[in-house]
Write a structure and sequence with these properties.
The chain is of the alpha/beta class. Helix content is about 30%, strand content about 15%. The strands form three sheets. Strands 2-3-1-4-5-6-7 form a seven-stranded parallel β-sheet, covered by helices on one side. The protein has a three-stranded parallel β-sheet with strand order 10-11-12, sandwiched between helices. Helix 5 links the parallel strand 5 and strand 6. Helix 1 crosses helix 6, helix 8 packs parallel to helix 9 and helix 9 crosses helix 10.
Length: about 325
């Protein structure tokens, strides 16, 4: 990164990296010149594209760091280490490649904090459950949470939370889904650590936009389509399912679900778990592929409508026959 004066803000986590990266960039753009990762170019092959395509005029470069296997984050920060490192929620993504499951996922995600250049470590409060990850932080520690008021930044759905001398500021994010509020709070935490005023954050909030295929909503012929198909792990699927809007009177919620990749030996367990979770939110389930059979089987257990297809064309045809306005 020779000759680049920009501070680097690096974002990793199992879910919400791209959304958080885009939210951070938007909140900072009111006061700073900002560059950011194109789409989700976050691997050792695509991360350098962001670094090479910078203009050199940026005050801040907001970058996304992805991890499929142990050591990926460590290799990325050798190319360009962040001044400010951010970890969103940790979940069982690519779990097949991590011997100790969540413990190792958290450990290797925390490599983003390990470079001496990194002076601020921003993370969701739940990371305290993984002491190895916390011990990797050498800079100032800043936590955020939707559940734990002891975090440095806490987002409450209630208006009057100014208690015990804690200062509250009212913001009105355009998204109310819990997983998106998590990403929003992470971005607010970064903006505040970068010296952006609360009033400036407030001015930028209406400009927030979701990346494509993240809970995208469009209504066609009275049918509401929700495209949350960018990627999948148990946490992200549960988040999407639990925030499906209520159908109109007489309507129903149809879910089209496929396989979650890289689940390893726990493949069947996690698919069945998501299937059980979906029972509460979905009226009719369409499943694609043999690998996703446990989703279908979970619905059969409670005799809710579910069908499994091997061919996409057959599933699409069935979906068209099921859809009604509402």
């Amino acid at each position: 990164m020779g000759g680049c004066r920009a501070q680097i803000i690096g974002v990793t986590g199992s879910v919400g990296k791209t959304t958080t990266k885009d939210f951070i960039a938007t909140l900072l753009e009111g006061t700073l010149k900002v560059g950011k990762t194109y789409l989700n170019y976050n691997t050792k092959l695509t991360y350098p594209i962001t670094l090479l395509n910078r203009t050199g005029e940026e005050d801040v470069l907001v970058v996304e760091l992805g991890m499929s296997e142990p050591g990926d984050i460590g290799r990325l920060i050798q190319m360009a280490a962040p001044d400010v490192a951010v970890v969103t929620k940790i979940a069982y993504a690519h779990g097949a490649y991590f011997e100790r499951g969540m413990v190792d996922i958290a450990k290797y995600k925390a490599e983003i904090f390990s470079h001496p250049k990194t002076k601020k470590c921003i993370f969701y409060q739940g990371l305290h459950a993984y002491p190895e990850s916390i011990s990797a932080m050498h800079g100032t520690k800043v936590s955020f949470s939707l559940e734990d008021r002891t975090a440095d930044y806490f987002l409450s759905q209630e208006y009057d939370v100014d208690e015990g001398g804690v200062r509250a500021y009212r913001l009105d994010p355009p998204y109310k889904q819990t997983h998106l509020l998590h990403n929003f709070l992470a971005a607010v935490s970064v903006a505040r650590q970068m010296g952006v005023s609360w009033d400036e954050i407030h001015r930028q909030v209406p400009k927030l936009r979701l990346p494509s295929m993240r809970f995208e909503q469009s209504e066609i012929g009275g049918v509401l389509f929700i495209n949350d198909a960018y990627n999948a792990n148990p946490d992200s699927m549960k988040a999407a399912l639990s925030h499906l809007p209520e159908p109109k009177e007489g309507g129903k919620r149809i879910a089209v679900l496929g396989m979650m990749a890289d689940m390893g030996e726990s493949h069947a367990f996690f698919h069945r778990e998501v299937g059980h979770f979906a029972q509460k939110y979905v009226d009719h389930l369409l499943v694609l592929g043999d690998e996703a059979s446990p989703l279908y089987e979970a619905f059969q257990e409670v005799q809710k409508p579910a069908e499994q297809y091997d061919r996409f064309e057959a599933l699409a045809g069935r979906l068209k026959s099921l859809m009604r306005p509402g």
